[in-house]
């Protein structure tokens, strides 16, 4: 005899598009494999395996372990992931491995700004707070920056790829006359500077200009100060400051914010503070995530799921954790431009870089449109 529940299940199954259901299951199984690959790619990057195997030809696992200074058993298991994922070639007869040059150009430290292995680190970083996020989902609120293990380290490496590598060839030239002004000497501030990679690079290149880096977190600032001292830079100051509470009082000729505004406790207040701190002919250069404020306009975004995942697990959380609005990573270009105008910026230009599909640059001033 068929029970009422069994009858309901059978009716429900009859309504399913079985082909669609099976395609979804296959996609999820593929996602499990790809997720495993991302985690192992991050690990391989951190321990230097991609750098050790790139350009070395065919190697046995013990030779690769020796060259990388690692334990052979773990290296061999890691190689099995890379082989079954199609990243590393394997010769069963000689039991040797090779990283094709076509793959190495996206996986080694020499491949900046195209090192996808460095970008893979975001996934394990946000995974460390999964249990904490369960509490956030249930109770609201957010997490502090300090809760995210290695976040500033990974951000610094990402900044080296997307920002620092393009500073002199693309970013400075996108603002007419900026190079000469920096050569002559101007005052520059970077808000949310993190480990200060951009300011360290600019200060070394333009000794006549003076630079300040501001951030809420002590850990990356300590690293930035140590590097500035090691480089002997006298024109650069790093200062811990909560910009939601302390305004930028000095007149600056240039203020920069690299992927920092949407995380803040008071993004609108920060933009107003920046606008008020600019000299009369000053400029604000803001790098942030390229995408729309409207979900349906991001359906074809090449990094949509990744960016929304980072938003869920980090950017939204750290803003809410400070009592902020939780704009999220994908606050979008429309909202960003509207908030810039509300803060008093009248002239706003947008630029994109060929090597960077993730970000957009806003160049804003208080001049007329």
TrEMBL record:
Keywords, in A-Z order: Methyltransferase, Transferase
GO biological process, one term: methylation
An annotated Gene Ontology molecular function: methyltransferase activity
Cited InterPro entries: Methyltranfer_dom (IPR025714), SAM-binding_MTase (IPR053173), SAM-dependent_MTases_sf (IPR029063), WH-like_DNA-bd_sf (IPR036388), WH_DNA-bd_sf (IPR036390), WHD_Rv2258c (IPR048711)
PANTHER family noted in UniProt: METHYLTRANSFERASE TYPE 11 (PTHR45128), S-ADENOSYLMETHIONINE-DEPENDENT METHYLTRANSFERASE RV2258C (PTHR45128:SF1)
Taxonomy, superkingdom: Bacteria
Protein source organism: Azoarcus taiwanensis
Protein name, as recorded: Methyltransferase domain-containing protein
Listed Pfam families: Methyltransf_31, WHD_Rv2258c
Gene3D superfamilies per the UniProt record, alphabetical: Vaccinia Virus protein VP39, Winged helix-like DNA-binding domain superfamily/Winged helix DNA-binding domain
Methyltransferase domain: residues covered: 183-298
Domain S-adenosylmethionine-dependent methyltransferase Rv2258c-like winged HTH: 36-109
Signal peptide feature range: none
């Amino acid at each position: 005899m068929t029970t009422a529940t069994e009858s309901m299940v059978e009716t429900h199954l009859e309504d399913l598009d079985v082909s669609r259901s099976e395609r979804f299951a296959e996609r999820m199984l593929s996602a499990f494999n790809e997720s495993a690959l991302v985690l192992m790619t991050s690990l391989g990057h951190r321990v230097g395996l991609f750098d050790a195997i790139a350009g070395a030809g065919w190697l046995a696992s013990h030779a690769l372990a020796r060259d990388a200074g690692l334990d052979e058993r773990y290296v061999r298991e890691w190689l099995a992931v890379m082989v079954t994922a199609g990243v590393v070639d394997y010769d069963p007869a000689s039991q040797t491995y090779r990283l094709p040059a076509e793959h190495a150009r996206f996986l080694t430290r020499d491949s900046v700004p195209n090192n996808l292995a460095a970008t893979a680190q975001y996934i394990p970083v946000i995974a460390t707070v999964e249990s904490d996020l369960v509490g956030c989902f249930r109770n609201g609120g957010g997490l502090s920056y300090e809760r995210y293990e290695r976040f500033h380290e990974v951000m610094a490496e990402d900044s080296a790829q997307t920002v620092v590598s393009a500073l002199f060839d693309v970013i400075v030239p996108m603002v007419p006359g900026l190079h000469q002004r920096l050569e002559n000497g101007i005052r520059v501030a970077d808000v949310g500077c993190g480990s200060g990679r951009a300011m360290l690079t600019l200060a070394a290149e333009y000794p006549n200009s003076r630079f300040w880096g501001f951030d809420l977190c002590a850990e990356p600032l300590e690293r930035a100060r140590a590097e500035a001292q090691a480089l002997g830079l006298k024109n650069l100051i790093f200062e811990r400051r909560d910009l939601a509470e302390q305004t930028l009082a000095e007149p600056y000729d240039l203020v920069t914010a690299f992927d920092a505004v949407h995380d803040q406790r008071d993004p609108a207040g920060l933009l107003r503070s920046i606008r008020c701190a600019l000299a009369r002919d000053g400029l604000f250069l803001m790098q942030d995530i390229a995408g729309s404020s409207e979900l349906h306009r991001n359906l074809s975004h090449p990094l949509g799921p990744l960016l929304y995942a980072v938003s869920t697990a980090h950017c939204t959380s750290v803003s809410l954790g400070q009592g902020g609005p939780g704009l999220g990573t994908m606050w979008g270009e429309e909202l960003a431009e509207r908030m810039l105008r509300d803060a008093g910026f009248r002239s706003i230009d947008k630029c994109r870089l060929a090597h960077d599909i993730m970000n957009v640059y806003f160049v804003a001033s208080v001049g007329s449109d």
